[in-house]
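Class, look over these structure tokens:
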Amino acid sequence: MSVEKIDELYKLRNEDPQAALSFLGQLGSSPEEKVATAVVLVDCGDAMNDVTSVSQGVEIFDELMKIAKPDSALSYNLANGLQVRSRLGHGPLSLVAGQAFEDRFQARVHFGSVMRDSSASYELRSQALTNIGILLLETSRWVEALDCFQKALILLPRNGIAAYQEMRHSMRLAGLFCRKSETYQTYCHVDTLLERIRQLSDVVSANYDTVVEFSGKEVLPTVKKAVEDAAKIKPGRKKRIQNPYFAFIEENGLALSIHCSAKEYSSGRFDLLTVPSIHAKISDEQRVPEIFAMINVMKSDFAFARQVYFDVREYDTDTPFFETTSHADTLDYAVYGVRFSALTSAQRIAFDILDKIAVALACYLGMKKAHKTSFSDIWGKTGKGGIFTLNEEIANSFRSGNPGLIALYNIYHDISKDDSRGHGFMEAHKSYRNSSTHRFSVLHDDMFPDDHSSSSLAVDHTHLNRFESLTLDSLKLVRAALFYFVDMINFAEEISRADSRGIVVSSTVPDHDYIRGR
């Protein structure tokens, strides 16, 4: 292996991508030289819009993954190559099918493995979170993307690229919310969003060196221009939230609003997300469209699961649950009691909201037997030869470019497992839900060994802290899905309003607390 040649190759990569590609013939076949070759093929192919070079780099990384020991750096590089290829190879039109769709799926799988690897460096995990956030934006999963950028900053506070990505997209959201305030008034408190943008601009401006380190010096002028625009926002005073539960919601981004004001928290009403109006159908007669009742139930279920999680999340703390049962010690560091049943119930309640979203979608789209569908079944059916066919109503919505539905469809794949492509990077959410529903989920403290499994396969053994973390992530996933559901309806309603054929009646409903005299 020639270290000097690898160093020269990387220097050329930054200065002359074409020369770097031409230089590759001088490298040998050692693992280090193969990695360098693949990195340059992906990076220089990206710079030159050369999908063939990128594909060659992806193939090398894929081969190395099959023969090497688990390696987060290798997983990250493969994911990065797949992400680049999906962007160069097919563009934005293939968000639900084709090679670009598969590349995005696999990229999320590999970025996800890096994010979960506690042995990986904070820097690498933060970069993986940043990249998967950008990847999620490509399929309209903007709520999850914002969460990823925020997590990336928590892991690595100097990650100026994560701060820039959150700032840039938040600026776009602020513009959208202001332009179409009637549609998006329940999505966010705009002044608080602007305060966040201002805070992020300070983070980015203090970390231009990291921006160059992670993304190259050519992006710096664009980043600096965005910072200049964001810096014009007047700094706001930091809000203080007295209620511990509300402070927990704010800290973890669990409100059904992207950003809430201190006034909203002090009033105790901050889960404001809803659909502003629906075009009523003749079948609704004089009744309020059922979609409003469905949204109310899903929001209530989410708020309940979130509160249960808050009440039981910390070990050996007081909870509102009475422990009235005795338990036989199973001598495997397991923990039993109402508190732990409440924890698994919180995860199950949260995840089951996805099935309610599917029923609500089916009803809204007018699908047959809507009440019998689920989040796994609503999308289509697998026929002879293993060919998957989308349901007609779903396919029609995809053709219209409905971003909320595209986001939900991609979530479906990420929580599923497939014989050909393997597990989605969030499949554990579904697996744990199925375990606590149909089998036995037993939680253990930190002394429990990682490799323990059930001889009967009837019991799933999990570390308590791991399950707590997964439950929090399940809450955040469902929160995002509720936003995408409302996105889906708002997009469809806008198309309906633009259709001048026939007469439509808009149904806007009053506030429930107002009607109840509260």
